[in-house]
Specification:
The protein is of the alpha+beta class. The protein has a domain of 68 residues. It has a four-stranded antiparallel beta sheet with strand order 1-2-3-4, with no helix packed on it. The model has no long low-confidence stretch (mean pLDDT 76).
Length: 131
């Protein structure tokens, strides 16, 4: 058994046919399981990833506070997030409350702790004494 040079006459038929035909065009990438064609060649998941809304940015202190909405009778509550943590954590809840003293609705920056309005009688004037 010799491993010498191969002569030009001993070219296999498949190699001769390939040389005459030339290289084949590049093959199309195969679809992966669960991948669908959208017509433009872009996966739907990639499109959904591109259109996903960005995480809300915090204010200068790092909190995401929702805007005040019209009075709904205290039904809706929104969380205030601290974006300095990963994942963001809830630090308090805002919404509309009724004052415990006079009964008028007011916007509460913390519905669990702030239950007195800052009305004309000044119900919230001395809450610092509890700090």
């Amino acid at each position: 058994m010799g491993y010498g040079p191969v002569s030009a006459e001993a070219v296999p038929a498949w190699l001769q046919a390939w040389r005459e035909r030339g290289p084949a065009p590049p093959a199309q990438p195969r679809k992966q399981h669960g991948q669908r064609c959208t017509g433009s060649g872009v996966r739907k998941a990639a499109v959904a990833e591109a259109t996903r809304p960005a995480a809300p940015k915090g204010n200068w202190q790092g909190f995401v506070e929702p805007e005040r909405w019209p009075n709904d009778g205290g039904v809706r509550r929104e969380a205030v997030l601290d974006t300095d943590h990963n994942p963001p954590r809830v630090v308090r809840t805002v919404g509309w409350r009724n004052c415990m003293c006079c009964g008028t609705p007011f916007w509460s920056e913390d519905v669990m702790r702030l239950r007195l309005c800052s009305g004309t009688d000044g119900y919230r004037g001395d809450e610092d004494r509890f700090a």
